[in-house]
Specification:
Rossmann fold; 2 domains; six-stranded mixed sheet; four-stranded parallel sheet; 10 strands; TrpB-like_PALP
Length: 343
C-alpha cells in the first residue's frame, strides 16, 4: 500500500480550499485507451468545486473594499446550492452573514446543508431567467435593498462576476498542469456559470495553446447549441442541478468563448450510467454533473483516439443528491434506469 505524504498545516478554511487530487478513472481509461483523470472537487471543505468560486469572490470583494475583514458584512447570492454553500462557509470564516436565494426545486440535501451551516436561506419558486422572479434577479434586488438601508453588502453575482473564473485560472488550472506534468491533451467540463471552464481554459492554454477545451452540456441546456451554431437553443430536459443554461450565456462563459474548441451533449441516462459505475466499481460517489463530465471525457477520448490524456471535474459528491438520482421513485417517475442495488 502506498502511503501519501503527510498533509501540511494550513491557515483556516481558506488554506484548505484547493489542491485536490487527480484521480485516474480506471474503467473509463481502460475503455478508451486514454488516461482519463478526474479532479476530486468533492473533497473540498464544502463538498464541491464551488468552494473555489466562493473564496475567490469574497477575497475579490475584500480587495475592492466592499467587505472589510473584522467588520459586519453581508454576502447575498442566488444559486442552485453549491455556490451558496461555498460562500456561506467562507463568509462564516470571515465573520460575515450570508443570504442565499435558491429555487425550491433543488435537492433537499443541499437545502438542509445550507440551513445547517447558518445561511439565511430564501426559497423561491423556479422561474425562467427572463422572469423578474428568477433567483438571480431576486438575489440582486435583496442586495440592492440592503445597500440602500446602509448595510455593507456584496452581491456575489457568480454568473457575471469574473472573480469566479479568475479563481480557477489562479488555482484549478495550474494545479491540473502541475499534477499532469503538462501531459494533458484535453479538458472537458460542464458549465453553470462557466467560471470553471473559462478559468481553467485560460490557465491551460497559456501553457499549451493546442490543448482542446470541450464544454460538456446536459439536455435542456442551450450552451451546446451556442458553441456549435452561435445560437442558444435548448432541447429536452435533465435532472442535473447547477449546470446548463436554457436561454442565456453567463458572463464568465462569454469571456472564455474564444478558448472553447467544441462541445459535447450528454443525455441523463448516459451521465447516470457513469455516476453509478463510478460508485459501484471505483468507490467514487459523485453527483450528476460529474457524470456528465466523465461521459463527455469518454466521448472526447474516443474522438481523439488512444494515448491521450483528458482531465475533467468531479464537481461534488453523490450524498448531495440522495433524494433524487439515488432515489428509485424519483428515477422511475422520469423514466430513468434504476441501479440494481437500489431496487
Amino acid at each position: 500500500m502506498s502511503v501519501p505524504p503527510p498533509a501540511r498545516i494550513v491557515e483556516g478554511l481558506a488554506g484548505a480550499i484547493g489542491n485536490t487530487p487527480l484521480i485516474r478513472l480506471r474503467r473509463a481509461s481502460a475503455a478508451t485507451g486514454c488516461e482519463i483523470l478526474g479532479k476530486a472537487e468533492f473533497m473540498q471543505p464544502g463538498g464541491s468545486v464551488k468552494d473555489r468560486a466562493g473564496l475567490g469572490i469574497i477575497e475579490d470583494a475584500e480587495r475592492r473594499g466592499q467587505l472589510i475583514p473584522g467588520q459586519p458584512g453581508i454576502v447575498v447570492e442566488g444559486t442552485a446550492g453549491n455556490t451558496g454553500i461555498g460562500l456561506t462557509l467562507v463568509a462564516n470564516a470571515r465573520g460575515y452573514r450570508s443570504i442565499i436565494v435558491v429555487p425550491e426545486t433543488q435537492s433537499k440535501e443541499k437545502l438542509d446543508f445550507l440551513r445547517m451551516i447558518g445561511a439565511d436561506l430564501r426559497l423561491i419558486p423556479p422561474k425562467p431567467y427572463r422572469d423578474p422572479g428568477h433567483y438571480v434577479h431576486t438575489s440582486r434586488r435583496i442586495a440592492e435593498e440592503l445597500a440602500a438601508q446602509g448595510e455593507r453588502v456584496v452581491w456575489a453575482n457568480q454568473f457575471g462576476n469574473l472573480a469566479n473564473a479568475a479563481a480557477h485560472e489562479e488555482t484549478t488550472g495550474p494545479e491540473i498542469w502541475a499534477q499532469t506534468g503538462g501531459r494533458i491533451d484535453a479538458f472537458t467540463c460542464a458549465c453553470g456559470t462557466g467560471g470553471t471552464l473559462a478559468g481553467v481554459a485560460r490557465a491551460l492554454k497559456a501553457s499549451k495553446p493546442d490543448l482542446r477545451i470541450i464544454l460538456a452540456d446536459p439536455m435542456g441546456s442551450g450552451l451546446y447549441s451556442w458553441i456549435k451554431t452561435g445560437e442558444v437553443k435548448a432541447e429536452g430536459n435533465s435532472v442535473t442541478e447547477g449546470i446548463g443554461q436554457a436561454s442565456t450565456v453567463p458572463g464568465n462563459l462569454e469571456q472564455g468563448r474564444a478558448l472553447i474548441d467544441d462541445a459535447v451533449q450528454v443525455a441523463d441516462p448516459v451521465a447516470l450510467e457513469q455516476v453509478y459505475d463510478l460508485q459501484l466499481h471505483e468507490g467514487l460517489s459523485v453527483g450528476g454533473s460529474a457524470g456528465v463530465n466523465v461521459a463527455a471525457a469518454i466521448a472526447v477520448a474516443r474522438q481523439m483516439g488512444p494515448g491521450h490524456t483528458i482531465v475533467t471535474i468531479l464537481c461534488d459528491g453523490g450524498a448531495r443528491y440522495q433524494s433524487k438520482i439515488f432515489n428509485p421513485a424519483f428515477l422511475r417517475e422520469r423514466g430513468l434506469p434504476v441501479p440494481t442495488w437500489l431496487e
